[in-house]
Amino acid sequence: MSQARFYTLDDFEVAARAVLPAEVVDYFAGGSGSERALAANRSALDAVSVYPRMLAGAAADSATTMLASLAAMPVAIAPMAYQRLAHPDGELAMARAARTAGVPMMVSTLSSYPIEQIADTEADLWFQLYWLRDQDRLEQLIGRAEKAGCSAIAVTIDLPIMGRRLRDVRNEFTLPAQVIAANLVDESDSAADPGSTSMAHVQRAGASAVAAHTSERFGPTLSWAELEWLRARTSLPLVIKGILDPRDAIRAVEVGADAVVVSNHGGRQFDGAPASISALGAVVSAVGASCQVLFDSGIRSGTDVLRALALGASGVLVGRPMLWALAVDGADGVEQALSMLATEVAEALTLAGCLDVASSRDLRTRIEGSLR
């Protein structure tokens, strides 16, 4: 695969589909329900046009700051579970590539390597938190992320229960024994129930073992009160991920969020949700300068990054393309994908007449025929 040529991020997906098991491809690529929200993310991004400015006089500088992180471009790697499904080095390879590219990486609660081991790569890590039923384990996770040197805590709020992902249900998808939720197991867990690490014990006909494990571990009663507790529990910057309604964005600021992520979970949760990009402008208007707004769901190119920036985002999270690149060639594949994306971002900013990331906010956009 190292000899293959890649010209777009989509090329990595084509190559990855040739080397991954079909059920793993479905797990990575699929959405919930009829996958309407998944498809809408792409079509809505394509509906955004950006009016370039002329005669800026210089090429763009893509460097920026997201939260307390200095980034070579306005991109962070999105939290994605069980990356060892794509490559044996999993999150370790992803983190090494992020460090080389100079971008932050958001590490999932469901990472297949423990946060401490990922932190050893010296990448700039943000820890993504799912709300667990076990309050003690939840607090331990926060402490572990702080001790490991994570520079932010990001709580995902759009998964009170897992959306019904029909590809996984039809495949009766379960994880291989070597792929575990490494942050959620310890020696006593493994000794008592070795199957808990592989989820084999929750597999049943016509069901997704990942969904069953999520139902078993995650708490469906997350409310704003819990987020207030979290804000008081950690001094790290707090990111609230999964915002679509401007009213929720305002409430997030009130509980002390330093950033919100406009996201429909990549189309993997509520299938009736709008495309994430269609919600971005209203959220930006609602919060103003009171917190940063990041964007997630469907980024596939530097032009997509520019679209989000022009609509007011401070930066974006990119997910599935990095998983495909990881599957193709481990850390080298992700480095290549991020390098390609960096070139595209710089090109898009320059062609749009932006000297830097901040000036992209002054660009005008047209969305489905409506000039902004």
Short description:
With 372 residues, the protein is α/β, with parallel strands linked by helices. The protein has 14 helices and 13 strands. It has helices at residues 9-17, 22-29, 36-46, 90-101, 115-119, 135-147, 166-171, 187-192, 209-217, 224-233, 246-254, 276-287, 302-310, 320-351; strands at residues 48-51, 64-66, 69-71, 75-77, 105-107, 125-129, 152-156, 238-243, 259-262, 292-296, 315-318, 364-367, 370-371.
What characteristics describe this protein?
three-stranded antiparallel sheet; globular; 372 residues; 14% strand; alpha/beta
What do you see in this structure?
The protein has 372 residues and is of the alpha/beta class. The termini are far apart. The strands form three sheets. An eight-stranded parallel beta sheet has the order 4-11-10-9-8-7-6-5. Strands 1-12-13 form a three-stranded antiparallel beta sheet. The chain is built from 14 helices and 13 strands. About 4% of the residues have low confidence. Helix 1 packs antiparallel against helix 14 and helix 4 packs parallel to helix 14.
